[in-house]
Specification:
globular; 12 helices; mainly alpha
Length: 423
């Protein structure tokens, strides 16, 4: 492994590519897990939405609870050396590739057996994914830098992640899930090899104390930022869970599915340099607020769309994708700054990102565990053409996220911007 230990912001594009590489396969696997999987089990295997939602909720809650423990273990690994952390990530990557394939190709039949298979494969896949992603995030945060530098580090990771999402949004439709799972395994192998040559975080001082799981909550800034992130994350998790149902049943445009997803994630990828430039002028928090307001202004239009409104929805995808670029790049850069100001840099990044990922997965768990059963209770089922059921789908997909996003924007202003915490 490389012995380079310099802030990535002052390194070459090759260093940025080497560090950010795992973001691509991790994002590639995330879209099928959180977007395609619920629809796949409901439509291909006839699994009831309420039962599927319960399984997804339980598996995601278990995964979320494990993240703080994984974060603490990651800090211990980095204390020994970056090589130890890399080896743990590589071992987890093998389990991740195997679990991902098992999820989409169950070898059982019947609703009960399918639900049990799904639950077991989800636990393996989620936990392995968490180990790789927490180590990757903590690695980047330990490289340090100022606000623009931290945003640049995250931009490499999330920019490559969006390329992975673009592949995942197109490949299953064009080549099938068989080819998608095989390509994912190859991409993950190549990414871990690249990370081995990336700039390494500075080694901890000999005898430096390890971080406890509760350490991040000693920082008031972390508690405030986590609250903002939670509300904002739920606003994004609900439409991510329901988007395929909306496209297929409200718009009746399944053939446009790859184009919609590609437009959304391509706009996000192309917008990342813009958001990084805005940070240099307006700061991380104000730039993030602008992204939230843009998302509300664009996504609210989705509630007015119906059958055949494909071009209008493509425009919504592009506009909300630009806003997504802010969500992907800026919150994690804010978190890295919180770690620095708290005096925990170099020893507690794993603990911070463990709780951060806990919040991310709690959002996704709540979205699947509450939105899917609620839609079923309101009379919606995949393939429904009933007007009341489709209205319920539109309310959950478009209007509820806008209300939540508005709440997150208010929290960001009241808890962070107005008190001047970024300064």
């Amino acid at each position: 492994m490389s012995s380079l230990a310099v802030p990535l912001a002052r390194s070459t594009w090759r260093d940025g590519l080497a560090y950010g590489a795992p973001g691509l396969p991790l994002a590639f696997v995330a879209l099928p897990l959180y977007v395609i999987l619920p629809n796949h089990y409901a439509t291909q295997f006839g699994v009831p939405l309420a039962a599927l939602g319960a399984v997804l909720l339980a598996a995601r809650v278990l995964d979320a609870v494990a993240d703080p423990l994984i974060g603490r273990a990651a800090d211990a690994l980095f204390t020994r050396s970056a090589r130890h952390a890399w080896l743990a990530a590589a071992a987890a990557a093998v389990l991740l590739a195997l679990g991902f394939r098992a999820l989409f190709f169950p070898s059982v039949n019947g609703t009960a057996a399918l639900l049990a298979w799904c639950a077991a494969a989800l636990v393996v896949t989620y936990l392995a994914y968490s180990v790789v992603s927490v180590i990757h995030q903590a690695w980047g945060a330990r490289l340090g830098g100022d606000a623009a530098g931290r945003a640049g580090i995250v931009a490499w990771r999330e920019g490559l992640a969006l390329i992975g999402v673009l592949l995942a949004s197109l490949l299953p439709s064009l080549a099938g899930l068989e080819a998608s799972t095989l390509l994912f395994a190859l991409l993950l192998l190549a990414a871990l090899a690249a990370l081995a040559r990336a700039p390494q975080p500075p080694a901890a001082a000999p005898g430096a104390p390890g971080a406890s799981m509760a350490l991040p909550f000693a920082s008031g800034d972390f508690r405030r930022l986590l609250a903002i992130y939670l509300v904002n994350g739920i606003a994004g998790a609900v439409p991510a869970t329901l988007v395929l149902f909306f496209i297929r049943d409200r718009l009746e445009a399944p053939a446009w599915e790859p184009l919609f997803l590609a437009a959304y994630f391509a706009a996000a990828a192309l917008s990342i340099p813009l958001w990084v430039r805005l940070v240099k002028r307006f700061g991380l928090a104000r730039s993030w607020l602008a992204g939230m307001l843009l998302a509300i202004g664009v996504f609210a239009w989705a509630a007015a769309l119906g059958r055949g409104d494909t071009l209008a929805y493509a425009a919504v995808c592009i506009g909300s994708g630009i806003a997504l670029g802010a969500d992907l790049t800026l919150p994690a850069a804010l978190l890295a700054g919180v770690v620095q100001r708290a005096g925990h840099a170099g020893r507690a990044e794993g603990a911070y990102f463990g709780w951060w990922n806990f919040a991310t997965k709690l959002n996704l768990a709540l979205a699947a565990g509450l939105a899917l059963p609620a839609l079923q209770a309101l009379g919606y089922a995949p393939g429904s053409r009933d007007a009341a059921a489709l209205d319920a789908l539109t309310l959950a997909y478009a209007l509820l996220p806008c209300a939540l996003k508005l709440g997150a924007a208010a929290l960001l202003y009241l808890l962070w911007i107005r008190p001047g915490r970024e300064r």
